[in-house]
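Hello K.,

You asked for the raw outputs rather than the summary table, so here they are, unedited. I folded two proteins back to back in the same session to keep the settings identical. This is the first:
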Amino acid sequence: MYHLRVSLQNFVTTVGEVSVRFIARGLVPAILLSSGFSGHSAPVALRLESESVDEDLVSIMRGAMADESTPETMFEARRQSRRAADAVYKVLNSEGYYDPTIEPFVETGDRLTPILRVDPGKRFIVSEFSVRYGGDSPREADQASILEDLELAPGDTAIPTRIIDIERVLLNRLHGLGYAFARARDRSVLGDREAGELEIVYNIVTGPRVRFGEIIYPDNIRTRTRYLQKLEAFETGELYDPQKLNLFGARLDETRLYSLANAQLAETSSGQSEEGDQIYDVIVSLAERKRNTIAAGASISTDKGVGVSTELTRRNLTRNGDLLVAALNVAELEQEIDVQWRRPNEFGYGRGLVLSSRLANENTDGFDRQTFSLGAGMEVIHGPQFSYGYGVTASYVHETDDFGTRDLQLLGLYANTRLDRADGVLNPTRGWRFDGRIEPNVSFGGQTSQFIKGETSLRGYYPLMAGKLVMAGRIKIGSVYGADINELPSTKRFFAGGGGSVRGYSYQAIGPRSDDNVPLGGRGLLETSVEARYMVRPKIGVAAFIDGGSVSARETPDFSDLRLGAGFGVRYDTPAGPLRIDIATPLDKTENDDVVQVYISLGQAF
C-alpha cells in the first residue's frame, strides 16, 4: 500500500502563496466509506473511498479527479492513484481542509483498480487575524479605516482565496489613502491542527504617504500643454489616489492622439509637504500616432445601387487635440461631402465643440434635392456610457417633389442624448443602446413653417449558448409636430424602407404616396426589427431577421399599418467589423415592391 501525506505548503504555494506552520502534529485516522467513481473512458477506472457528511465535498473531490482509462499495469495504476491524490489534496485545501489524510493504493483482482482512501479532517476556521506594519505605520485614523468592513472575521472558514483577497483589499485601501508604495511581505499563518484553527498575520510595508507634485510632459510632442492640462484628474499637492492617476492615463489614451500614453509617479521624491508627506512628480510618457489617416469603403444593394466612400482624418490640426474629418460618399442615388471639425475638451474635460458642414445631391423616387448645411454644437461626454449634445443648424435646400420646386432656408436648434450599455459599435453582442433627439425648426423662403421633429430609438442585444447566438432587437419612433406634410422640407420628413430601415422593401418605399405613386414621406414613423445571429465558426455567422415599419401622414406613428419584411444573411468577421450580406423579401408586397432585395455592407444592420 502506498501512503501519501502532502504538506500544506505544497498546495497553497501553487495557488496563493499561503504558508501554514502547525503548532501541533499528528496523524488523523482515516474512516472509510466505499463510494464508486469511474471516468468516462472505462466502466471502473478509479474508486474514491471517503467518510464525509458533506455530499457536496464528496462531489467536488470526485470532480477533481481526471478521467482515466482502465490501467493495464501496476505502474500505470499507481501513477493514476498518485495523480488523483494530488488533485484531491489541492481541492480539499481550496475548501479549507488543510490536514487531510489521503491514501492511494491499487486493488488487484480481475482488473487493476486505483483507489483513494480520503479523510478530509477538520475544516479550518480563522481564529484571529491582524496586520503588522513594517517601517512607518499609517496614521491611527487610516489604520481604523483600513480594517473597516473586511470580509474576514474570527470564526470564518479559512479559504485560501479569501485570505489572499483580504491582503489585496488591505493594499488597495492603503494606496487609496495615499500610501503609494505600500506592499505586502510574506504573510504569517499559524495553524492549530487539533483545534482546526488558523491565526493569520498580514505583514505590510507601508512606505511614506504621498502627494502629487508637478505633472511633467515630454517636450517632443505637437500637442499644446494647455490642452493636456484639461485632461488632468488631480491637482498638484493633492493626496495620492491611484484611481485618479489611472483616470488621467485613460483620458490621455481616449484622445486617440497617441499610440502610447502613460502617467506614473517619478522614481524619487521632489520634496516634502507641510503635513510631512512626500511629494512625487508625475511623469507623462506619450508616443504620437500618425496625424493623417485615409479610409475607404463600399456598399452594394439592389435598392440603392453601388456606393463608394472615402474619409480623410487629420489629427491634432491646431495642436489642441482637435480632429478634422472630411468624408466623400458617392452612390447612384446620393452624392455628398461631409466635413466635421471636432474640438474635444474645448470648454474643459468632456465638453467639446463640434463644427460641421455638408453639401449633398440626392435623386430618389420621392424627390430631387440639393442641400448645403452648417452646424455648431456642444458635445458633452460623461464617460463611455452617457453623452449628450445641443446646438444650432442652418440649411439651404433646393428641392423638387410632388409639391413643386422650392428654395427653402431652415434654421434649427437640436438636443440629443445617448445611453450606451452595449459592448461594441459595429458588432455588439450584449447590452443596450438608447438614442434620442429633438429639433425645433423654422423654415422660410418658398414655404414658411415652424415645427418640432423628435426621434427615439432603442436597441438591445442578448447572448445565448455561451455567446454563439445573439438575439438582437430594435425599435425606432419619430414624430413631427406643427406643420403639414406639404409644408415640411423633404429633409425633415420620415421615409422608411431599405437597408438600415425595413429590409425587403426598396429605399423609401414605405409610406404615403401621391396620386402619381410618388413617395411623399410622413410625419409619424415606426420601425422595429428582431434578428437572431449565430456564429457557425469563429469568423463566419448566419442571421435570420424580421423587420417592420410604417410611415403615416399623421403626427403620431401608425401601429395599424405595419409592413413586414423577412430574410436571412451571412456575416464574415473582419478586423474592421463584420461583412454583412442580407437577402430579404417583403411580406406585405405591393406593385411597387420587388420580390427580393440584397444588401452588402460593413457592420451589423443595427
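The second followed immediately with the same parameters:
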Amino acid sequence: MKARGIAVGAVAIGAVLLGGCVTKARNERYMAGHFRAQAELHDAGGKVVGTAVAEQVEGSIRVLVDVNGISPGPHGVHVHTIGVCTPPDFTSAGGHWNPGATKHGKENPMGPHAGDLPNMKVDEKGHGHISFTLSGGTFDQLMDQDGAALVVHAGEDDYKSDPAGNSGGRIACGVFQTV
C-alpha cells in the first residue's frame, strides 16, 4: 500500500514537471515569435484535398495553402473565426476572421478583413498554391478559445463584396491545430 502511494506521488510530480516544461517551451516559442499551426483540408465528402499552415513571422501571420484535387479555376480562400469544419457546407467555421472589425476585400476602402487571402488559381490537374502574409491580427487572436479554420470557396473572390466576396459555397475546410 505504501509503495502504491509513492508510485502515485511520483506520477503526480512527473506530470507537474512535464506541464512546466510544456509551458516553458510555449513561453520560449512566444518570446522568439515562433508559433505555427497546421490544417488538413477536407472536402464535403471527407476526402483530404490539401493543407494549410499559419505561422507567426515578425509580428504578422504567414499563411501557406496547397490543394490537390479540387476544381480548376480561381477560388476564394479565407481564414474563418471558428475551428470547426462540419460538412457538407462548413458553415460551422463561422465568418471571416476579422479582429479589426473591417469590411471584406482589399478593394473595399473600409477593408480588408484580416482573414482575406488572395484568390488561389487551381490548374487543370487540381493543384493550387498560395502564400500570403496577413496583417491586422496576432497569432494569439487567431488561435483563441474557439480556434480558426481555413476555407476554400467554390468561386473567385471579387475582393469587395461584404461579407464574403461573392465567392460562392464552401468546398473545403480545415481546422488549424498548433504544432
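The beta strands are 36-43, 48-57, 60-68, 73-75, 77-80, 120-122, 127-134, 149-153, 170-175, 177-178.

Happy to rerun anything if the numbers look odd on your end.

Regards,
P.
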